[in-house]
Amino acid sequence: MDDTQAGPLAGYTVGVTAARRADELIALLRRRGAVVLHAPALRIVPLADDSELLAATKELLSCPPDAVIATTAIGFRGWIEAADGWGIGEELLSRLRGTELLARGPKVKGAVRAAGLVEAWSPKSESLAEVLDRLLNAGVAGRRIAIQLHGEPLPGFVEALREGGAVVIVVPVYRWMPPQDVGPLDRLLDAVVSGAVDAVSFTSAPAAASLLARAAERGMREEVLQGLRTGVLAACVGPVTALPLQEHGVATVQPERFRLGPLVQVLCQELPGRARVLPVGGHRLEIRGHAVLVDQDLRPVPPAGMALLRALTRRPGWVVGRAELLRVLPGAGRDEHAVETAMARLRVALGVPKLIQTVVKRGYRLALDAGGEAKYDA
Hints:
By secondary structure, the chain is of the alpha/beta class. The protein is built from 16 helices and 18 strands. The strands form 5 sheets. Strands 2-1-9-10-11 form a 5-stranded parallel β-sheet, sandwiched between helices. Helix 14 crosses helix 16. It is elongated.
């Protein structure tokens, strides 16, 4: 099968830090061939048990706001459902009918109207920056403004309203906390450090911050950051999500539209774009995360074999000595026979033994075709 048939992410391992909508993201990645390492970096506080949300809701009922900003459809629906569960749903809806209700985008408008309400205004850009500009231009001094959050921090938004003289009430729908079981997250951190994962996806800023916080707890934050700065791709659903990583010098990739589908498409473009492609032994070798595409055939390669192959591809066509190969072989110790064993398994995995040549008493080299990246070592 060719690259497209194999899937653009075949041969790659992608970490998923999402808790909410993780199943949807994982399905999209697997459909494109990726191996997924799911490590929720957060857990969601159940709405019915959320005392902060209840307190904020009661504050709005006792002292009506002048404006309410609905930022996410699922968050707005969750807020109304939680109020229903507490027996104050109708009272909340009545209060919202008497205020200026701003909806961030079309999905939020749908949730607002499904609740029997009508928004006063919604930006075409779906941007909270446009919402903020509208409010500040109209003047917010002395106004009570409530904003429904969805676990995401909104850098500068609340501060700008307060600096303009507004009283801001934050409605924290779907608050997030560290996961109860940190085992999967620890395994993902180890994979980032060892290079066993090719990319990590982030769908919220709190998830990125939580991953770094757990790394700090384990005394490995700098190693994790180094992994994300070098070999492991950090893919974020949007600029707000990327902030905790960018503050530590981690470059990120983001889709133009802040949705799961476009996020997966960015991974489908970026990871294959990083693959090393070489003409070897009359074949086309595309070296991916944990597999090699030999012409049209995707061949999984064990970690030891991949370590050897990457060492050979750093100087394609040139002889690489056994001692040098031994140094890159995980857990091999000092026995050069381990190189021979791993090399034999690599050749079997590739399915074309003559791709790698043995140079007697010297080492091994890729059988690079004439006109390839490097000339043969004489």
